[in-house]
Amino acid sequence: MEKFMGKRILIAGGTGLIGSSLCDLLQEKGYEVAILSRSPEVKNYQTFQWDVERHYLDESALDFAEGLVFLSGENVGAKRWTQKQKDRILNSRIQAIRMLVEKIEKANRKPAFFISASATGFYGGTLSKRFSIETDLPGGDFLAAVTRQWEESVKPLQEMGIRMVVLRTGVVLSEKSGALPKMAKPVQLGLGSALGSGKQYISWIELNDLARLYLFAIENEKLQGVYNAVSPDPVTNETFMRQLARAYRKPFFLPSVPSFLLKLLMGEMADMVLKGNRVSCEKIREAGFSFQYNKLEDYFQNLKQQPH
Ligand SMILES: NC(=O)c1ccc[n+]([C@@H]2O[C@H](COP(=O)([O-])OP(=O)(O)OC[C@H]3O[C@@H](n4cnc5c(N)ncnc54)[C@H](OP(=O)(O)O)[C@@H]3O)[C@@H](O)[C@H]2O)c1
Questions:
Q1: Are 8 and 32 spatial neighbours (Cβ–Cβ below 8 Å)?
Q2: Containing domain of residue 117, as a range?
């Protein structure tokens, strides 16, 4: 593998779940890491501030950055999807990237690479068993529209000769935060069951594997374009919840939580759990990446907090 020699990496959204894990890994590997954040001071790492709504960016951030990783954005699972919240989900990503594109265009020195998160939501929620691959067309729902525009907004960087990698990320598994603690809560209370039909696929990736995948994208100059960031073992929601209950040595019940109830509680956001996508990792594996967690069972066997 050809090594990128630049050692200074700027991470927009470096305070989040994926960003914190990536910052620690990069520091461990000898990189100089800085975070682009809405907050002026972030513990542990040098921080540059920005405020996309006010079109403000501390421009010394771009002097620092030999490479950029983009992990910012309003959390899609944080609040009910009102129109205002949908706008926030979309704008916190594309307006931020548009501003970066504009500032990079004017900068004297351009970063060598721009690696951006995206999500497997690009393919749209479905109950299909077919594996989605990177050349597939986007789906037709809200998250598909967001990710499509998100990915589009990165393209001008490619035209500037900056190496661009987009990682279409599945459900990130970590005990710290994100989807898993939310899914584990009813299980730990002894109320584990599948959601809706239970047939929808969850394409997941373990947090440290994802941080390693970002490192792989940083260091492998041949990597360019869109890659799915999911493990080789997508499972149905029913299998996921059953295995989770087993890991916590808790019961698993059928029938599942009915779809109408979840729709009532969550509104349109329920689509995120009632539908899914079976996503292929073949492209990134063929590029030479290997996962530490290939099977969901291996990950669940190592859950620290079991049993409750
Ligand atoms: N976690 C997953 O399962 C998953 C799956 C697929 C895709 N992704 C994508 O990967 C990226 C990183 O995920 P993550 O789980 O690490 O995210 P996260 O923990 O929610 O953190 C993202 C960071 O974005 C910034 N942010 C939050 N709300 C914002 C807003 N309204 N406007 C601007 N910035 C905002 C925050 O940084 P500051 O407060 O420091 O500015 C935050 O630390 C996200 O874009 C996410 O959509 C995540």
A1: yes
A2: 8-173+203-231
